Amino acid sequence: MIDLKPEDLALSVDGKAVPIDTLVLTARKRPGLAPPESSIAVAPAPSPASPLLPPVGRIRQIAIFVDEGETKSFDRRNVYDELTKFLRQPGMADRLLLVARFDGSRLHIESPWTADTAGPLDAIARMREHPAAERLPTISELKGSSASVEEVDAYRRRLFRALLEALALFPSGDAERQLVLVSGGTVFAHPTDIADSLKLQASPSSLPWGPQRSAYEESRQPERDRGAFMLWSRAV
After folding, report:
1. How many CB atoms lie within 10 A of CB 86?
2. Residues with Cβ within 8 Å of residue 2, at least 6 apart in sequence
3. What is the mean predicted confidence (pLDDT) over 193-208?
4. Are the C-beta atoms of residues 27 and 16 closer than 8 Å to each other?
5. 32-46, pLDDT tens digit by residue?
6. Per-residue pLDDT tens digits for 139-176
7. Integer Cα distance of 67 and 184 in angstroms
8. Residue from 177, 171, 175, 178 nearest 57 by CA
9. What is the distance between the alpha carbons of residues 166 and 156, in angstroms, rounded to a whole number?
10. What backbone torsions phi and psi does residue 177 show, to the nearest 5 degrees?
């Protein structure tokens, strides 16, 4: 029955014979006669849009930035001990690390970017052993101190400039970037809270708003513009 031809069959429509032009045979599976399936699994061909390989995990870049200018040496030592434990934990080999410190004036790179934890550990050990005198009171020490709003503002500009320098040091490429900042937090407080914490003193900042205060603020504007431009250009 597998060699049937069109002329072997007769077709009639409304009692009239109709010729069969084509005949297509369709094979049907019969129970018990199906060919055995192959034991080799063939993966489907990937579509052009799907990647051939799984995505590679992104490298984690961690920059440790220590503000020595407004933190106590014994407080920093406690933080250094915790950072040492952090760097010695398993799984740090696949990360890039940088250790930097800010002395109140400029940024110092104690350990450049490296995948070896030995360099960052040595840097933290050195920083732990050399106590640096703070240049700015902590937020809890502002009340009753001799600091001024201008001093805190100047320190803030220097610290933010150093932070921008540290951010610019991050390597390019696809990575997960983290910045670990150790700071007393004075410059991150709201300026109004800082002014309220400081004692009243005869300084231009304590002048009431009026012609004299306006003249002082106008004289300071070029300095603010230069500082803002420097921060903006460093960020770009």
Report:
1. 15
2. 25
3. 59
4. no
5. 555 555 444 444 444
6. 778 777 778 888 888 888 899 999 999 999 999 888 89
7. 8
8. 175
9. 15
10. -105, 135
